[in-house]
Each structure stands twice: as C-alpha cells, then as structure tokens.
Amino acid sequence: MSPLGGSGRLKSRASTGPWVATAWGRFLMGLMRFIVVPPDRITEDLVEQAYLCGPDRVPWQVEVSPQDNELWLERSGSDSGCLYVPWVIEGYGQLMLSTPTLRERPEPYYLPLELARGKLSQVRNQMFDWQAAGLEVPPAVLEPLREGIRWFGQAACSERESAASVAAAERALVLALRSAEALVAAYTEQALAVRRRLGNRVTTVLGADLGQAPWDEYTSTQFRLTFSAAKIPLVWRQIETGEGQFAWELADRQVQWCRSQGLALCGGPLVSFDRSAVPDWLQVCEGDFEGILGFATEYIQAAVDRYRGQMDYWHCVGRANRGDVLGLSEEEEIRLTARATWASMPCSEDSTSWKPRRLKALASIMSRIRRLPSLPGSMP
C-alpha cells in the first residue's frame, strides 16, 4: 500500500542511509525535501509522477514519499538536480513543471516558489537563446515576464507558506506561461517570415489520418480548414480482401479529394505488424516467411505502382516493434521492412538514380540484416 492509501509505487518510510552533521543539524545524504502548500496538492498522481533529473534531463532512480506537508525524494547520489511534478495552473490545467537546478541542503525547499522560479528561468533562458539567433522580442513577451518576476519577488519576500506567498507564486507562474506562449508564437512567426523572404519552400505539414469511412460535407470542410496534409491509410486487410482481389475505390476517392484541396499526401503504412491490419486469408501462411514475403511484396508493389507520383510521402511500415504477427521473428520483420522501403523509394525511369537521403536510410536498415533475398531491379 502507498502512503496515500492506494497502490502507489513507493512507501513512506524512515530512511536509514548515511547522515551528515552540519550547522543546521543532521540531514540524510541523497535526500531532497519540498514543502507543498496547500498540503492537499500532494496527490497520489503527484507522488507517482514526480522525478528528479540532472542537466541531461535523464530521470534518476528515486524514492518518493509524502511526509505531512512535505514531499521527500531520496536517491543514492547527492548531485544537484531539477524536480519535475504535475501541477494544476488556473487557465492551463495540469502541466508538468520543473524547478531550476537545486543543490541538496538540510532545510526543505518551498515548492510553489521553486516552480515559479523554474518556469521564469526557463522562459528567460530560451528568450536569450533566440535573441542571440536574431529574434526580435515583442512587448507581448517582455511585459508578462517582467510582471511575473515582480510577483515572484513578492512571493519570495512574503512569509513562507502564507496565503500571500502562495498566491504570488501562482500569479508568477501564470504570467511566465503567458510569456512563454507569446515567445513561441513570436519565434514561429519570425522564423517562417525569414524562410519565406529567402525563398525557401516551407515543407512542414500538419495532417491526420482520413480513416476508412466516407465523410460528410461538414467534416470535410473542417479537415480542410485545419490541416495541410492527409494520410491515406491503405490498410492491407481493407484493400486486398482476397488473394489478388483489390478494392481501391475508397483510397482512390480520398486521393482525388486531397489533390483537389491542395493537401499534401502520405500513404500507408504499406505494411503494419498488427493482426487487425493483416488480411484474414493470410493467416494460413503463419510461420511461412517466404510465403508472407511474397504476398506482402505483391501488395506493396500494387499500392506503390497505383499511387506513385501522387503521394508526397510513404509510410512504409507500422508497429514494427510488435513481434507477435504471423509468427514473424525480429529479423524477418526487418527484412519485410526493407522490402517495403525499397518498393516505395522514388527513382528515375532507368531505375538507377536514387535519392541519396533515402538510399542512406535503406542502407542503415539493410546493414542489420544478415541475409536478404534478391529484389527486383536490385542495386549493384
């Protein structure tokens, strides 16, 4: 049982590790303490999700436990680190916030104050980094940031754990988040403006899967207004309903509609290692890799040939880490992945001019394979 009465991962306990004597008294090495105000913010979710990490942001192994109105985190080392906790902010909901880098010390830290300090520092550091890259920081960023620093000063100078201190720290957090939103918006706007001014085509797209069912006019309109790209599922199970029997009608309509709306297109995954995506009639081949590879190759080639030149991107393989489909081993899944990648790679009419970036990606896959059967039009 957790100290919160649930099935949490850690127990509240008396520690028996090494103690150090200081001018403040004895304290446990590796222990960091945080006062949480109000105490009812120490929820089971907070205890389960809180963690410490160093400058590399890799979480450390820690034991987390509530002690009255404090949160205790105990680890084997004594390095300085940041605490990450879920924290509810008015107007923003629950966010994962962090303190700045804190050293280990005998007295506890005041968590609301440190979270405000952490967010304000994060915004200021990011702002300075982007300023060095040429960002012009607008007043929408600077004004809430200055106001947040002022409220942080009030929180730090107020009596600790008082209502005034808590309210000031919360206000500083809200203003820091507001400044962060304005900072990201300013960077995005100015970075895109520079790219357009230089004549570079903006290749970033935002899209979603079109699914397997036709849409009504309202859904189509909302999709067009929201996204700049669309993904055509091309689910093997839905398209090759019988061996050699292909149903392209829905995919054809989706491709035609996307092209008429000027949306970028992504097709696939061509193969998904998921039983819900594999045709029922293929189940008889379970354990027969060469048979599965042959059927998969025929389907992949049919899909790529049908939509070659119409797709801007190909999603070759999905859920390749499952390992529980049709009795395929990890090496066999890698070989099938290479086959799908090979088939979808764009080439010129003489089949010898390959895009170097995609060729490098394929070489990386093939380097992990001990044996790969000959492929049609294989490279020298």
End-to-end gap? 63 Å
Q: Beta-strand level of the residues, as a percent range?
A: 15-25%
Count of alpha and pi helical runs: 10
Order of helices and strands: EEEHEEEEEEHHHEHEHEEHEEHEEHH
User: Which spans of ≥5 residues are poorly predicted at pLDDT below 50?
Assistant: 1-27, 347-380
Measured on Cα atoms, how large is the radius of gyration?
28 Å
The count of strands amounts to: 17
| Protein structure class | alpha/beta
Main β-sheet, in a few words? 4 strands, mixed
Helix content: 40-55%
What spatial order of strands do you see in the largest sheet? 5-6-3-9
- Annotated CATH homologous superfamily of the largest domain: Glycosidases
